[in-house]
């Protein structure tokens, strides 16, 4: 069979679901939710198949596809210049993110059982969002990447603004505007590169920018990298560009926030690694100290603020900021350990935050609150949920044997080689993480129960699927990290020579 | 015959243009505003005719242009006045500063 | 030995089984736990004996690849590991058995056993780790196990607080360990103990770096072993069920710190400063905790502080290059302290209180527990011919030989204190007449007494594996084949030390008897001597309060400051920008006055503006 | 000029114009002789047919060499063809809107005029597209303007309609005067009104004084023409006129009239000032010298349009500002003067045609239903008519310039031009920033449509003619967003504007 079509099928398979949904009457809740769930499966299966394909020792390049698409006219140069192809491909790194996306999307579609109204519209947008995310991670040129990037924007806006909690519209708007600005900056960078070099294919660009005779001066490169840092800094988010993300995490509905904190934030990290580091290695090196400082700031800032939140969602939101700081720390190290740690953190946080937000969603469904104070002593009422919550917290605070540790460990290990003092400061974050997570989680689960948990049912039925799957993956990565590290080796080798490190 | 220098005509045209502009931007009565616009257009015509006589490369085209300008100006004025009448029927005023039902 | 990795596996299996099926098994869970720990006990005994004859066994496989570095996982069986394996699995097994009686009737019985399994697994994994990274991993897991068990009675606010405290305080130490580890890695390019030692011997690592890393790693040990200043969590940890206190906070986990220092001894011994630090901290903690122990009235807290102080002893030993002494005391202490805790547990089980003021006169009622408790007390007080005597003597000798006269004196005083408060405890609990109601007080079931008996026996005889008289088998064995340690083997301390130690401890016992046994001296004799001092001790030198006022307060302060920034600076800027744009729009739409002439004017002004610019620049902007 | 010379001209190149002219005249007569009561919509359909025919003939003329007749006052080059297609397409869709526009407020008996005035206006625009002489340019411009004055005021019993017409006339008059004044100087300096002749004689310009004067006339012409583009500083009429005029007229002004404006601007600026030198032959042309002024106007236009739009509560006013903003975007392309300028401007106008006319179609339906044009009237549109809501959503997304729509590709084109050669970072940054600002109001409409509850649940009935517009608009916006090369390649293969623009 022809493997080149696979990626396109993978990316656009959710559209099938959209088509089916479009034909369904809008009031059949059960069947709509079922279809919505089923529609996420093809992508999941294909991505897993691709992973198997990799494990079987075959080349991921088998999947890459490139088709003539847009050719911008009037620049008085012939193709391939100013031609944008439809080109998808998979590297190890991308493969992992695609798998992560597919998994989280499927689980989120299960979590969508809590959606109360207009399931049809919800799932159509949800699936569109999945298309966008899958595309982002497989796109091989900047313009295609940007297109998919924006495709994620609009569904998310509606998913937040229509199905979210109390202040949903405000949240949706700040999401739109911040990310709009971020993508605007990104677009400028892309178009400058495009106008200067006539191509946006990442690999070709890498070669062009690598040779000193390129039409892009060093200063310009530095400027572009800083712009990229801002663009993806909004997504990641990097302090002080984070305030939108707090609102989103608090207001968005369960499945959306799972996707959002699990995948969408990771696009920022992906972009920084693939484009920031991949295209401008020297400039990245010159900025590494700054990035490390930003990372430490993120780490501590998020941690300290999470320490005094009263709403568990806010705790998680700030903890996301804090954990993304670790990504920056790892990147700033610019050595195998650091970068690998950063990538690990991307994936592990994707799983962990999805898990935690799902559990919070469950709690909210049961108790109509996510305030730590109101949930005290929850372990009495719903021990299993409490147990998983605790486990999730442990994973999040970097307990060995779970994915969080490996990434944190490597990121810091990397930085300790380059900037030991900064790293030492950063380790305060490790303590604070434990502090705020225990404060919050124990506050919810342990202690005297402030409320009657009678009638509050524990985790049950299909709710176990996301929780257990995510937990298993977290532990798997924690115990046997090679599942991630081996596909990454190739990617790292491609990035590292550029770093000369 | 003693010739008046071209610059004089141009100056006249410029002045006329400015008067017209001033009238168009300040007068309350719409009719006068329309007339002021006519003044501006006529300033143009003076320019054209002047140039067609004393220009860099004198030619008849200027005067043709002027003729077109005149006729167009007439058409414009006609339409303007027609609209003004319609407006007057509904609003019972020709004061331009009272035409502000649409704003914010 | 090739299959020593099975030893930790058994408890893990029990953990998993109980996690999944515990609810159905109910009390039967106990058997699962007991049998599986028994299995690992037997296996570890085999390994121990095997190790007597065979050399160290190491095996490892790639765990994680970072670029060119291959981080490995595996296990190693050297003397120390083998010994620890035996101690841990033994105590764990006994505690498992004991708990069947102690926890009887608890609705979360199976959860308790699951946690025990998890902890045992982690602890056993810790002791067979061949490299720092793996050690760290299990080190953390052990912490979690302890955290879970301390917080077992989760609905009690105290338990919650204690669990949180334990986790965070140990975490602080762990970070030290983490940093040390990371730095050491980039120095030696490896986490393997062997490579590290090799690199240290080869002098690849600068002296300062050795000192720095050693001390950082020691901070980790300080956290786990409840050394000053990170000791405060350990007494609070007594909120956990008593068997847990016996297993984790007396015998095994808290000793992990000592174990860590011991297993990294070559690194420490390479830096005099590091050793000195260890010794000083240890010595200080020993006397510091002992002094607090003098006045506590909660039976478990007294034991807790004595644990802290004993751990201080071990650190002191290691710090003054008494490798064998440290490990030796670690072993004996494990036995008699576990014994004491279990006995205390059985007492609490009987009288349903932990306040010694409400006990008394239990000697007659608890026919078995009493004597066993006495054995333990004698052992810890260092009365001759019991295990504690030999190990403590070894330490004093080491301290003296190591040339720390001051620490030596401190140790002596600590020994005196220990003897005093332990017997104070004993007398108040078992002698005199009953305070508080003691109706239907009864001896614990045999399932609880049996482990105590075994420990009792060990508490008596364990010392004889390493004595000045019957040969120093343990010492020789521990250092055998390891020149790095050979220097720090058994010390033949001068006899006067032994005598002095004996005298001191006997004095302590005598004083305790005068006050609490014979009551010839008023109880307030000590507190009377300075009420101030008494309250200070009672409040544990106000260390907790101090932390509350400093670290916690500062943290909170920073947080609120940052929140201020978040709400006003970050949000403020955003609001400012949006406000500006909105304002621009507002003015723009205000200009839209509906006055057509304004529009024309604007156009004209625009034109004029451009024309003026044009005129001023003479038509050439560039 | 004798009959022979007249008959020698290749009149066939004027076929499209003749068709429109003829049908316009025909409609006038039919309207005259039609019985009073009879429905005049038929005239509209005839007009549509005429436009379709004209389009076909224009398309058939594509690809040929440059033909210029009547002493080079009328020239048919690729530029003319390309933009005539836009004008005709736009006018056609507008006619569809007009056919279903409900006549009230005194325009009932003028319905006939309503249609053929569109045609005359269109005719003027087409002449502008292919005139090679200042005079014909001016005539075309005025034909367009005067017709649209009347159109704006055609609801003669409606105060707003009258008022908007009045404002339009006055501002239009002023702008015309200013433009003409500028033109008169150009004529004075060259003694000719033929663009190419002017270019010829200016290419040797050396005298600093003359250059200076020419610069001034440049400013006058540009500012004067800014009126048609609704670009700053001559933009302020737009909101009022857009609001008061009948919706089809508003649509016409925002698309066709704007396109025509760009046609004339490009014609004059490139031919006249592109050739005029600053310091003798071979030196930098005035146009490049004046680039910064265009940039200044472009920036101001984008900022004003997008920022003020935030504050609007009337959908038509909002779209007025949005159209101002879009004019600004196109001016960025004009500023950059890059080699792909024609492509980017043409493509953007094409995209704008689809998305804006589609949006106005929706607006017309909703406003006629509710009798008012408040943005709040869109509340709950999604519940009332999901189809309409989704269509509007797509069009708004395209206007906001999100990928997958023609609006996005149009912006990409402009950016390529702006960064290629000497990059215009500031201008491009303003453009992107204001684009983000525009999300606010476009998505504001979306929130009304999708999030807010509906005031009343009664549904809409969509007339066939408007349905056509909607379908064409959506298909166009999406198709050219996904496969822009359909348009780009057509232009690339058939219309070599750059080559025959100056010949």
How is this structure best summarized?
By secondary structure, chain A is mainly alpha-helical. Helix content of chain A is 76%, strand content 3%.
Give a quick set of tags describing it.
heterotetramer, A: 501 residues, mainly alpha, globular, D: 503 residues, two-stranded antiparallel ribbon, 22 helices, 75% helix
Overall description:
The complex is a heterotetramer of chains A (501), B (104), C (622) and D (503). By secondary structure, chain A is an all-alpha fold. Chain A has a domain at 287-501. In chain A, 76% of the residues lie in helices and 3% in strands. Chain A is built from 20 helices and two strands. In chain A, helix 11 packs parallel to helix 18. By secondary structure, chain B is mainly α. Chain B has one domain: Helix Hairpins. Chain B is 74% helix and 0% strand. Chain D has helices at residues 3-8, 15-33, 41-61, 78-100, 111-129, 134-152, 159-190, 195-202, 208-229, 237-244, 247-275, 286-289, 291-309, 315-336, 341-370, 381-384, 386-400, 406-419, 425-451, 464-482, 485-494, 497-501; strands at 67-69, 74-76. Chain D has a domain at 291-503. Chain D has 503 residues and is mostly helical. Classes of the chains: A mainly alpha (501), B mainly alpha (104), C mainly alpha (622), D mainly alpha (503). Chains in contact: A-C, A-D, B-C, B-D, C-D. At the A-C interface, helix 11, helix 13, helix 17, helix 18 and helix 20 of A face strand 1, helix 5, helix 6 and helix 25 of C.
The strand order across the widest sheet of chain C is 1-2
Distance between the termini of chain B: 60 Å
Poorly predicted runs of chain C: none
Give the total of beta strands of chain B.
0
Cα gyration radius of chain C (Å): 31 Å
Largest sheet of chain C: 2 strands, antiparallel
Q: Helix segment count of chain B?
A: 3
Main structural class of chain C: mainly alpha
**Strand segment count of chain C:** 2
Radius of gyration of chain B: 17 Å
Count the domains of chain B: 1
Number of helices of chain C: 26
Shape field of chain B: elongated
Strand content of chain C: under 5%
β-strand percent of chain B reads: under 5%
H/E topology pattern of chain B:
HHH
Mean pLDDT across the residues of chain B is 89
What is the topology?
The complex is a heterotetramer of chains A (501), B (104), C (622) and D (503).
Chain A: H1 4-23, H2 29-55, E1 65-71, E2 83-88, H3 92-111, H4 119-138, H5 142-163, H6 168-197, H7 202-210, H8 218-235, H9 243-251, H10 254-279, H11 281-306, H12 312-333, H13 336-367, H14 372-375, H15 378-381, H16 383-396, H17 403-418, H18 420-445, H19 464-479, H20 482-499
Antiparallel strand pairs in A: 1-2
Helix pairs in contact in A: 1-2, 1-4, 2-3, 2-4, 3-4, 3-10, 3-13, 3-20, 4-5, 4-10, 5-6, 5-10, 6-8, 6-9, 8-10, 9-12, 10-11, 10-12, 10-13, 11-12, 11-18, 12-13, 12-17, 12-18, 13-16, 13-17, 13-19, 13-20, 16-18, 16-19, 17-18, 17-19
Chain B: H1 6-26, H2 30-54, H3 61-91
Chain C: H1 6-25, H2 29-53, E1 57-66, E2 69-77, H3 79-102, H4 109-127, H5 132-150, H6 157-188, H7 193-201, H8 207-224, H9 233-236, H10 242-251, H11 253-263, H12 265-269, H13 272-293, H14 299-319, H15 323-351, H16 369-381, H17 387-401, H18 405-430, H19 446-461, H20 473-479, H21 483-486, H22 495-517, H23 524-529, H24 531-538, H25 543-591, H26 596-616
Antiparallel strand pairs in C: 1-2
């Amino acid at each position: 069979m022809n493997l080149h079509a696979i990626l396109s099928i993978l990316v656009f398979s959710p559209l099938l679901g959209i088509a089916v949904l479009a034909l369904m009457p809008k009031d059949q809740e059960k069947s709509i939710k079922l279809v919505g769930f089923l529609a996420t499966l093809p992508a999941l299966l294909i991505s897993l198949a691709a992973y198997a394909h990799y494990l079987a020792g075959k080349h991921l390049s088998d999947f890459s596809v490139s088709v003539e698409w847009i050719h911008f006219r009037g620049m008085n140069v012939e193709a391939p210049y100013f031609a944008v192809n439809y080109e998808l491909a998979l590297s190890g790194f991308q493969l992992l993110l695609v798998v992560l996306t597919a998994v989280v999307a499927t689980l989120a579609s299960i979590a969508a059982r809590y959606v109360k109204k207009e399931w049809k519209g919800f799932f159509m947008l949800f699936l569109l969002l999945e298309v966008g995310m899958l595309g982002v991670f497989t796109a091989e040129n900047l313009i295609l990447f940007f297109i998919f990037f924006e495709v994620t924007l609009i569904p998310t806006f509606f998913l937040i603004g229509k199905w979210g909690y109390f202040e949903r519209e405000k949240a949706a708007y700040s999401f739109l505007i911040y990310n709009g600005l971020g993508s605007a900056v990104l677009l400028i960078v892309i178009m400058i590169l495009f106008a200067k070099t006539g191509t946006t294919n990442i690999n070709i660009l890498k070669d062009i920018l690598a040779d000193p005779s390129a039409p892009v001066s060093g200063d310009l490169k530095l400027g572009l990298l800083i712009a990229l840092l801002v663009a993806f800094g909004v997504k990641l988010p990097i302090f002080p560009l984070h305030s939108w993300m707090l609102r989103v995490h608090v207001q968005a509905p369960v499945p959306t926030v799972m996707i959002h904190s699990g995948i969408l934030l990771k696009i920022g990290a992906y972009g920084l690694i693939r484009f920031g580091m991949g295209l401008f290695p020297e400039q990245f090196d010159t900025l590494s100290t700054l990035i490390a400082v930003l990372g430490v700031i993120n780490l501590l800032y998020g941690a300290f603020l999470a320490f005094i939140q009263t709403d568990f969602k806010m705790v998680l939101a700030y903890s996301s900021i804090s954990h993304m700081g670790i990504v920056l720390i790892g990147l700033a190290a610019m050595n195998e350990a650091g970068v690998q740690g950063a990538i690990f953190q991307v994936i592990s946080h994707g799983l962990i935050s999805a898990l935690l937000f799902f559990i919070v969603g469950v709690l909210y469904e049961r108790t109509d609150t996510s305030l730590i104070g109101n949930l005290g002593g929850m372990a009495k009422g719903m021990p299993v949920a409490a147990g998983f919550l605790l486990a999730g917290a442990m994973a999040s605070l970097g307990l060995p044997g779970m994915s969080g540790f490996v990434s944190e460990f490597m990121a810091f290990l990397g930085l300790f080689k380059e900037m030991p003092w900064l790293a030492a400061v950063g380790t305060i974050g490790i303590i604070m993480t434990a502090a705020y997570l225990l404060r919050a989680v124990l506050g919810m689960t342990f202690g005297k129960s402030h409320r009657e948990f009678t009638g509050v049912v524990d985790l049950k039925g299909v709710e176990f699927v996301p929780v257990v799957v995510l937990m298993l993956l977290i532990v798997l990565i924690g115990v046997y990290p090679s599942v991630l590290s081996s596909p990454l080796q190739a990617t790292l080798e491609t990035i590292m020579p550029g770093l000369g490190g | 015959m003693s010739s008046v220098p071209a610059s004089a005509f141009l100056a006249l045209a410029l002045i006329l243009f400015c008067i017209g502009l001033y009238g168009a931007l300040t007068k309350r009565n719409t009719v006068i505003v329309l007339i002021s616009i006519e003044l501006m257009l006529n300033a143009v015509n003076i320019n054209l005719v002047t140039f067609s006589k004393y220009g860099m490369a004198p030619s008849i085209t200027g005067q043709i242009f002027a003729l077109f300008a005149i006729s167009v100006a007439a058409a414009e004025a006609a339409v303007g006045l027609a609209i003004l009448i319609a407006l007057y029927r509904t609003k019972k005023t020709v004061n331009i500063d009272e035409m502000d039902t649409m704003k914010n | 030995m090739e299959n020593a990795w099975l030893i930790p596996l058994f408890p893990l299996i029990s953990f998993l089984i109980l996690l999944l099926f515990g609810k159905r098994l109910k009390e039967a869970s106990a058997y699962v736990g007991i049998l599986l720990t028994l299995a690992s006990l037997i296996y570890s005994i085999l390994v121990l004996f095997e190790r007597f004859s065979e050399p160290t066994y190491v095996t490892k496989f790639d765990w994680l690849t970072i670029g060119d570095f291959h981080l490995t996982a595996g296990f190693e069986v050297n003397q120390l590991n083998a010994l620890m394996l035996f101690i841990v699995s033994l105590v764990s097994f006994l505690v498992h058995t004991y708990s069947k009686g102690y926890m009887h009737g608890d609705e979360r019985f199976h959860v308790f056993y699951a946690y025990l399994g998890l902890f045992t697994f982690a602890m056993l994994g810790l002791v067979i780790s061949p490299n720092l990274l793996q050690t760290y991993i299990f080190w953390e897991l052990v912490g979690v196990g302890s955290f879970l068990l301390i917080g077992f009675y989760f609905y009690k606010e105290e338990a919650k607080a204690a669990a949180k405290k334990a986790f965070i305080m140990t975490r602080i130490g762990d970070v030290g360990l983490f940093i040390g580890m990371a730095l050491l890695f980039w120095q030696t390019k490896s986490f393997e103990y062997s490579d590290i030692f090799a690199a240290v011997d080869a002098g690849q690592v600068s002296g300062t770096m050795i000192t720095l890393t050693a001390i950082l790693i020691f901070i980790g040990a300080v956290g786990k072993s409840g050394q000053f200043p990170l000791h405060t969590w350990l007494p609070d940890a007594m909120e956990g069920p008593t068997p847990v206190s016996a297993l984790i906070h007396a015998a095994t986990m808290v000793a992990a710190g000592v174990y860590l220092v011991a297993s990294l001894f070559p690194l420490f011994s390479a830096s005099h400063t590091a050793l000195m630090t260890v010794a000083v901290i240890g010595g200080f903690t020993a006397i510091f905790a002992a002094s607090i122990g003098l006045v506590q009235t909660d039976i478990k807290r007294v034991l807790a502080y004595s644990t802290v102080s004993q751990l201080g002893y071990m650190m002191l030993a290691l710090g003054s290059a008494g490798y064998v002494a440290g490990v030796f005391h670690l072993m004996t202490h494990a036995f008699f302290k576990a014994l004491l805790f279990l006995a205390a547990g059985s007492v609490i089980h009987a009288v349903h209180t932990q306040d010694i003021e409400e006990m008394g006169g239990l000697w007659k009622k608890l026919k078995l527990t009493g004597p066993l408790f006495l054995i333990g007390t004698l052992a810890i007080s260092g009365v001759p011919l019991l295990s504690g005597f030999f190990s403590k003597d070894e330490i004093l000798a080491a301290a003296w030989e190591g040339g720390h006269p001051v620490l030596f004196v401190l140790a002596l005083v600590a020994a005196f204190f220990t003897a005093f408060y332990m017997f104070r405890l004993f007398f108040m609990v078992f002698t005199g007449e009953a305070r508080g109601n003691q109706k239907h007080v009864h001896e614990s079931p045999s399932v609880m007494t049996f482990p105590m008996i075994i420990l009792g026996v060990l508490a008596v005889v364990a010392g004889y594996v390493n004595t000045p008289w019957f040969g120093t088998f343990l010492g020789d064995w521990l250092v055998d084949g390891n020149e790095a340690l050979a220097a720090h083997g058994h010390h033949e301390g001068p006899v006067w030390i032994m005598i002095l130690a004996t005298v001191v401890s006997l004095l302590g016992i005598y004083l305790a008897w005068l006050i609490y046994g014979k009551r010839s001296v008023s109880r307030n004799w000590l507190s009377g001597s300075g009420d101030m001092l008494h309250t200070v001790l009672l409040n544990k030198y106000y260390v907790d309060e101090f932390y509350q006022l400093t670290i916690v307060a500062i943290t909170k302060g920073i947080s609120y400051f940052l929140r201020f920034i978040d709400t006003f600076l970050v949000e403020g800027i955003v609001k400012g920008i949006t406000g500006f744009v909105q304002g621009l729009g507002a003015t723009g739409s205000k200009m839209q006055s509906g006055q057509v002439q304004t529009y024309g004017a604007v156009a004209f002004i625009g034109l004029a503006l451009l024309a003026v610019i044009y005129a001023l620049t003479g038509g050439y902007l560039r | 000029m004798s009959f022979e010379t007249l008959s020698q001209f290749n009149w066939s190149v004027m076929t499209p114009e003749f068709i429109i002219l003829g049908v316009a005249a025909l409609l006038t007569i039919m309207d005259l002789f039609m019985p009073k009561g009879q429905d005049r919509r038929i005239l509209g359909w005839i007009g549509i047919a005429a436009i379709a025919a004209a389009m076909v003939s224009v398309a058939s003329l594509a690809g040929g060499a440059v033909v210029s007749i009547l002493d080079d006052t009328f020239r048919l080059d690729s530029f003319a063809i390309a933009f005539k297609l836009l004008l005709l397409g736009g006018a056609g869709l507008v006619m569809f809107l007009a056919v279903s526009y409900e006549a009230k407020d005194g325009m009932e008996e003028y319905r006939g005029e309503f249609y053929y005035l569109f045609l005359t206006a269109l005719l003027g625009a087409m002449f502008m597209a292919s005139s090679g002489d200042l005079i014909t340019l001016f005539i075309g411009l005025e034909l367009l303007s005067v017709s649209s004055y009347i159109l704006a005021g055609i609801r003669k019993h409606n105060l707003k309609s009258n008022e908007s017409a009045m404002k339009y006339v006055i501002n239009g008059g002023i702008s015309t005067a200013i433009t003409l004044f500028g033109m008169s100087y150009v004529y004075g300096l060259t003694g000719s009104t033929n663009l190419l002749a002017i270019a010829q004689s200016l290419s040797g310009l050396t005298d600093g004084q003359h250059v200076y004067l020419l610069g001034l006339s440049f400013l006058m012409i540009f500012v004067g023409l800014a009126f048609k583009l609704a670009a700053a500083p001559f933009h302020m009429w737009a909101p009022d006129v857009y609001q008061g005029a009948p919706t089809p007229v508003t649509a016409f002004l925002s698309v066709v009239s704007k396109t025509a404006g760009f046609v004339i601007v490009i014609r004059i600026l490139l031919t006249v000032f592109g050739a005029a030198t600053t310091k003798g032959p071979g030196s930098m042309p005035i146009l490049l010298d004046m680039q910064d002024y265009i940039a200044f106007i472009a920036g101001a236009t984008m900022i004003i349009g997008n920022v003020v739009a935030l504050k609007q509560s009337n959908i038509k006013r909002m779209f007025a500002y949005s159209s101002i903003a879009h004019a600004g975007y196109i001016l960025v392309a004009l500023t950059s003067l890059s080699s792909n300028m024609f492509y980017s401007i043409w493509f953007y106008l094409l995209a704008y045609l689809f998305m804006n006319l589609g949006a106005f179609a929706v607006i017309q339906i909703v406003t006629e239903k509710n009798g008012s044009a408040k943005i709040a009237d869109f509340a709950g549109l999604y519940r009332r008519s999901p189809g309409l809501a989704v269509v509007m959503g797509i069009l708004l997304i395209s206007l906001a310039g999100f990928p997958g729509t023609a609006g996005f590709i149009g912006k990409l084109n402009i950016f390529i031009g702006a960064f290629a050669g000497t990059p215009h970072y500031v201008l491009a940054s303003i453009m992107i920033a204001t684009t983000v600002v525009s999300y606010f109001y476009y998505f504001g409409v979306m929130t009304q449509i999708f999030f807010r509850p509906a005031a009343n649940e009664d549904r809409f009935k969509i007339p066939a003619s408007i349905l056509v517009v909607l379908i064409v608009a959506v298909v166009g916006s999406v198709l050219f967003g996904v496969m822009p090369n359909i348009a780009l390649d057509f232009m690339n293969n058939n219309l070599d504007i750059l080559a025959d623009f100056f010949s």
